[in-house]
Design brief:
This protein is α/β, with parallel strands linked by helices. It has helices spanning about 10-25, 35-40, 45-55, 65-75, 95-100, 105, 135-145, 155-165, 195-210; strands spanning about 30, 65, 85-90, 110-115, 125, 130-135, 150, 170-175, 190. It has two domains: about 10-75, Winged helix-like DNA-binding domain superfamily/Winged helix DNA-binding domain (Arc Repressor Mutant, subunit A); about 85-195, 3-Layer(aba) Sandwich (Rossmann fold). It has nine helices and nine strands. The longest helix has 19 residues, at about 10-25. The protein starts with 7 loop residues before the first helix and ends with a helix.
């Protein structure tokens, strides 16, 4: 796998494989074929085999996949065998909702702090974190080995905040701000546009209604 370029489409499917395999593991299922996994996930068996072959394959012909082993290996590929320390910049409704979502911690994503420039929010407790002023952000990142910054702030301030965080040693951004971040190539950025997802939904509703003459 070393040096091999994996397509973003394949990478995009890995979390879904991980989620389904976790559910199978919890149900006590020890082994599964690509066809059985295909039936559950609605992805073709050949697509599943192609995806897994990008990483050397995980099964044996006619023998299928060991669910727990596959779950653990995909977890390693996704970096989930390590802990990741996160901060949230922006303590509005979205920032607070993300901080309160417990499932992140089960995957090894640990929220260490939340920051906002609104004095009215400073000191407010969200789970076990107090909202801190932006003035404390730089020192906090450097002292707490923070890997990832979650940006839930307006696009007007996101670029400047991101530039400062890069200098402070951040490795990646989970960016909910509607702006492209101008960061060095070594810094990873995952942009999340909630309205884009909703517009894809309405497109598919409209397309279905047009194709089926639904009024």
């Amino acid at each position: 796998m070393e040096g091999k370029e994996i397509s973003q489409a394949v990478i995009g499917r890995l979390p879904r494989y991980f989620r389904y395999l976790g559910e199978l593991k919890d149900e006590g299922i020890e082994r599964i074929s690509s066809q059985e996994l295909s039936d559950i996930m609605k992805v073709t068996a050949s697509q599943i085999r192609q995806d897994f072959n990008n990483f050397g394959g995980f099964g044996q012909q006619g023998y299928g996949y060991k669910v727990e082993y596959l779950y653990e290996e995909i977890g390693k590929i996704l970096g989930l065998d390590k802990k990741h320390n996160l901060i949230i910049v922006g303590a509005g409704n979205l920032g607070q909702a993300l901080a309160n979502y417990m499932n992140f911690e089960r995957r090894g994503f640990l929220f260490k702090g939340i920051f906002d420039n609104n004095p009215a929010l400073h000191g407010k407790k969200i789970r076990d974190m107090e909202v801190k002023p932006m003035e404390e952000l730089q020192e906090f990142v450097r002292e707490n080995d923070i890997d990832i910054a979650v940006l839930t702030i307006p696009k007007t301030s996101a670029v400047a905040v991101a530039e400062q965080l890069v200098k402070d040693g951040i490795k990646g951004f989970w960016n909910f701000a509607h702006v492209d971040l101008n960061v060095p190539k070594r810094i990873q950025v995952e942009n999340v546009h909630l309205s884009d997802s909703l517009m894809k939904l309405t497109y598919n509703i409209n397309r279905y209604e047009e194709e089926n003459n639904v009024h």
